[in-house]
């Protein structure tokens, strides 16, 4: 999936994560993470975002994540929604997405 515009999903409320995705001039995924639990879970948060982007076919994007203790399923859901918004897509294939591992 191609990122066409900047998009944001989520909040900075407790147990949530705000994901911002924009185009990247480089052919890579760059992730900037701000999290109060980064020392314990930063690597896991980044991995969930990377894996979700890979499953969606995104190979180039700038991601800014502001985490407030979100669970993996929330991180994944926010990432999926943000990618679809950034790609200008409005139809989700939830049956396919539901089959992914969290």
Automatic annotation (TrEMBL):
Q: What GO annotations for molecular function exist for this entry?
A: lyase activity
GO terms for cellular component: cytoplasm
The superkingdom listed in its UniProt entry is Bacteria
Compartments reported by the entry: Cytoplasm
In the UniProt record, does the keyword Phosphoprotein occur?
yes
Residue numbers of O-(phosphoribosyl dephospho-coenzyme A)serine PTMs: 14
**UniProt keyword terms in alphabetical order:** Cytoplasm, Lyase, Phosphoprotein
The UniProt function text for this chain reads: Covalent carrier of the coenzyme of citrate lyase.
Family under the similarity heading: Belongs to the CitD family.
Q: How does it assemble?
A: Oligomer with a subunit composition of (alpha,beta,gamma)6.
Q: Which HAMAP family match?
A: CitD (MF_00805)
Protein's name in the database: Citrate lyase acyl carrier protein
Originating species: Enterococcus malodoratus ATCC 43197
- Gene encoding the protein: citD
